[in-house]
Amino acid sequence: MFYRYGESANGTSIAAMKATAEARVERRLAAILAADVAGYSRLMEADEEGTLAALRAVRRELGDPKIAEHRGRIVKTTGDGLLVEFASVVDAVRCAVEMQREMIARNAATPAERRIEFRMGINVGDIIIEDGDIFGDGVNIAARLEALAEPGGICVSRVVRDEVRDKVDFGFEDLGERQVKNIARPVRV
Question: What is the mean pLDDT of the chain?
């Protein structure tokens, strides 16, 4: 049997198959918040049940309500982290700042070695949505920004800062261009 160049075995062109696959990909622009608990392994080693109970309480009493208040959607959770999608970058930043401020108050009476402190990263980018999950550079950069944040801190990309700087009542510190893991170009933080 002979096939013409560019055709599959059933006669469908390779270009048509690619176009069909690409047409099924859902994309949108979104603000992505990545968060995790700084020192989570150390906290779990010291007190697994207590750490898990404290983290559940933070999610129930603070995290989930703040995310809902700012119209975010929790995409997924890990043992100590969250990935949240927002339609508005202003909502994403306000949510993160309010959560970090409230965590300071929650931790005031807790010994330093037992505090639950989040690191957060926020980016805006074009994402791919599949089965409720999100993928793409926008997500990857948010995760890399989170890894750069100090405990209790938030790192944002330049595009986030540019979008919100005249819409929020707090400032930003420029940390410069940073090379981050598995991202070819430097990211302004």
Answer: 90
